[in-house]
Amino acid sequence: MKITQLEQISEIAATRSLGQAAKNLYISQPALSYSLKTLEDELGKPLFSRGRNGIELTDFGKEFLIYVRPILEQWELLRKISGSIDREPPEEFGVSSAYLPLPRDLLPELLEEWKDRDIRFSLYERTVEGVVQDLARRRSQIGIVNTSRLLDRRNRELFRQNGLTYTPVYKDDRNYVVIGPHHPLFSSDLEEVTLEMLRSYPLLSYADILPSFPYDYRILGIDSFRRRIKVDDRAAYDSLIARTDCVTICNYGSCFYLDEKEQNVRILVLKAENDSFAGYEIGWARRADQPLTPVGCSFIEKFCRMTRQGIALRARLMKTCTSEKTVGAAKIANHDVK
C-alpha cells in the first residue's frame, strides 16, 4: 500500500469516475485501474462497484476512506512543513530481446508516452537462454524471443521450467539472407538463393548464436561454411553487412523492419536444403506469477501492432518488386517482338 494509491482512492471517490480521476491525477486510465486492482487484491475486498450513476464506494470502501482521509491530511501537512517529501522510488521496466531489433525501435515511442512518470527503462540483447534468465531473475518484465520449428519444443520446456508464460505473435515458414552492396549478388535479379551460392562468402552471426543452435545450423547446412565472422553488438553487425561481402541468415522477425532502399541492403529468400527445418516463430514471454504493469501492457500492444505493420509493409514491398519485374520483362518481350 502506497500513499499515491490512497490519493487515487480519494480522487476516484470524489469524482465517481475512473476516467476523470485519471485526468485529475495526470495518469492514464489503465494505470489507475491497475493501481486500484493491486490495492484491492492486497486488501482482499473491493473498494468500488459500478452503479447507474458511475463508480461507487462499497460499504468496505466507505469505511476504508474514513481512515484514509486523516492520513492524507497528515501527509499534506508534512509536505508543507518539510517543503517536499522524497518521492517514491521510480518504477523499473526492462525488456530482454533475443537479438531482435524491434524492441529498440519501440523505445522512443514508449518514452514519449510515459514521459510524465518516473520510470527507469532497460533494454538487453541476449540469446533465448539469456532472455529466460533475465525473466527468471526479474531483471526484465518482458522477453522477446524467436525460435525455430525444430527448437520449439525445447524452448517451451525451457519456459515451463522457469515459470514463464509464452505468447506467439508471428510465424513464418521461410528463412532469409541479408547482403550488402559489396556482395556480388546485390545487383542481381534473384529473389531466392541456395546455400551453394553463398558458401564461398563469410557467414556473419552473433558470437553466442551458433553454440546455442547447433542442430538448426547442422540441418540447414550452415556448418559447411568455412569462413565465419562472429560479433557481439549490433553496430559491428550492421557495419560488416554494409562494408563487406559477408552474408547473414536470419528469420523474418530480424529483417522485416529493414528498408532495403534506405539501408542499402538486399533481403533474399533462402531455399533450405532440408525443408523440415524451415519455420520461425516470434513471441513474447513473462513470469507467470508477475502480471504486466501498465507500461508492460503498452509495450506489448505496440510490439504486436508494429509487428503486424512491418509484416504487411514488407509483403507489399515484395509484391511491388515482383510486379515491377513482371512489367519490365513484358516490355522487353514486346520490344523484341517489334
Can you give keywords for this protein?
elongated; 338 residues; 13 strands; four-stranded mixed beta sheet; single chain; five-stranded mixed beta sheet; Arc Repressor Mutant, subunit A; 12 helices; 3 domains; D-Maltodextrin-Binding Protein, domain 2; alpha/beta
Outline the structure in words:
The longest helix has 44 residues, at 294-337. α1 packs across α2 and α1 packs across α4 (59-82). The protein has helices at 3-15, 18-25, 29-43, 59-82, 102-113, 128-136, 152-161, 214-220, 234-243, 252-255, 260-263, 294-337; strands spanning 48-51, 54-57, 91-97, 119-125, 142-148, 164-172, 175-179, 192-194, 203-206, 228-231, 247-250, 266-271, 280-287. It folds into three domains: 3-82, Winged helix-like DNA-binding domain superfamily/Winged helix DNA-binding domain (Arc Repressor Mutant, subunit A, Orthogonal Bundle); 92-172 and 282-323, 3-Layer(aba) Sandwich (D-Maltodextrin-Binding Protein, domain 2); 175-271, D-Maltodextrin-Binding Protein, domain 2 (3-Layer(aba) Sandwich). The chain is of the alpha/beta class. The termini are far apart. A hairpin with a 2-residue loop joins β1 (48-51) and β2 (54-57). It has twelve helices and 13 strands. 25% of the residues are buried. The strands form four sheets. It has a five-stranded mixed beta sheet, with helices on both faces.
